Here is the input.
Amino acid sequence: MASYTVADQTTAFQGFARRAFTQEKRYPVASSPSSRDMEQGSVTEAHLLNTTVESISWYGVTVAVKDRQSKSPRSLVENVEGIVRAGELCALMGPSGSGKTTLLNVLAHRETNAKTVDSTVLVNGLKMPLSTFRKISCFVEQEDALIGSLTVRETLSFASRLSTDTKSLPVKDRVARIDSLLEAFGLREQADTLIGTPIRKGISGGQKRRVGVASQLITGPKILFLDEPTSGLDSTASYEVISYLKWVAKRNNLIVIASIHQPSTSTFNLFDKLLLLSKGKTHYFGPVPLVRQYYAQLGQTIPLEMNTAEYLLELVNTDFASSRGFAPEQVEYLQRAWEASPQCAGARYEMAAVTFDCGKIVLDEAHQKPSVPSVIMTLLHRSLIKSYRDVVAYGIRIAMYLGLAIMMGTVWVRMDTDQSSIQPFTNGLFFGSAFMSFMAVAYVPAFLEDRLQYVKEHHNGLYGATELIISNFLIGIPYLFIISLLFSAISYWLINFRPSAPAFFTYLMWLFLDLLAAESLVVFFTSLFPSFVISLALVAFANGLWMSVGGFLVSPDILNVFYKYVFHYWDYQKWVFEGMMVNEFADRVYDCAQVPGGGCHCMYSTKLEQQCLIQGQGVLDQYGYRPGHMGRNVGILMAIVVGYRVAAWVVLTLRR
Here is the structure.
């Protein structure tokens, strides 16, 4: 291993210090876009041009988790520091488990689920509040949450509408901005192509990555974070994505920081700076062109014919060190060599210069955020497009409910008003309402997509849980009403429930409220547990519980005290079933069975027994139901619906 003399270190340190002070000259703040740039479709526009954020720096970044075996803290990232200036593209690179994604989350002010996080992240040498930081930065996920049923143009349009008020950005300028980005990212030919769903094919993987980046750039960030933007792409597509990022960063003076695993040589050389990590510790931070020279000084000459990134990853990877003849002690030595190197000292000197010399920042407030009602209307518009294009959202559910209506109508077809039909009528009311709510589990995947989109857009400061919950509730109302109407129109008259228009519309009302409550339950559980399997299981279990304690399977008079007072009274199926029972039996009369030789036998003893008839109230008495409480019951059911929505809002608000 090579060693440094004091003279060598002093000379190298002076060189890095000079580079630190001339860094601002290498990447000066971009001027206003020229007419030539605009004519060529350049993305250098006022909303993209960064004239305020000069640098982002960080030091002392340490993230620790609790080790399951030793039960003591274990560092994922330890004392990492660095600086990236405007116009630079920085790569966070390291083997799997090196801490690059954790570091990226810390720099982007995102949750890490770690026990302790100690860090100092500065913008222009100053600490910045989270709300302000989100105004100037965006984060692109490794698997970016894009709505597959939207076109490329619509994706950019909705991203723009959610980030900028129409008053500060007229429609004409918004369209021009979208066209400019489509041209710059090579997406003009795919502008009207769907992103793609599991059922309907859309654009390619590389194009999706570019759409993800463009949808964030259109919001006008000054700092862009990307989590492995080349993951799952071939070398050509990876180079394409990174080259666009570099071009945009240089043109608009943006700061771009991306975690990356193992780029090709051509892709690796596109980056301006490299932060190499191993076991959460820094092994190199500085210009990419100087990385070969640095490791050559340590006796690790990188062969010219070998991919530099691949060599570095093998060099600092301890997982397979024994099989390659490398000792973990050698990796530790390389890390200590970095700490003692003049390159490390130069980087720290540059950070110190920024901290002391850039103690001010002026944020660009040229564009205003849209108001809450405006955001809700935009989300409603987007959800409307998604709902009629994506069959998973409501199309499949409508088909399911129509099938259930036909099945029920043909099984319970044209029941008579004989006493033998009383129990089948009761069974039909319970079965229809219970299974309509149970089948709401089909909404789980659709809301999961909405939730993933919300998490991304919320972290990027576009809107909060209030806008999501309100827009989601409003968009569901017409569809749930249509489902209720179709189901009722088919099953109600085929079964021969009480044949009157008021009775039909009352039944329709209860069924609609039933679906509102069932979908609200889905929204709550999916917000709480954003996993398809877990949400599906919990919603199914909850509906099974509501069926059991609703009052049909076990009469409320004999229901277990625990279930009666803990679950029964806030079981929405209980109120729906009670309302439907009162609607069907309160004003209806049934014939008793004729006894051979004269007389009759009535299953229920009522005032009309002498007339060989059964008054419907006698059926209701078996369940303890009385008419005249419709307003109260509707109010309780609406309170349950609102309760689920508020609970979902609380969950989404707390899980920031």
Notes: The domain at 6-357 is CATH 3.40.50.300 (Rossmann fold). The chain is about 55% helix and 10% strand. Residues 228 and 260 are 5 Å apart (CA to CA).
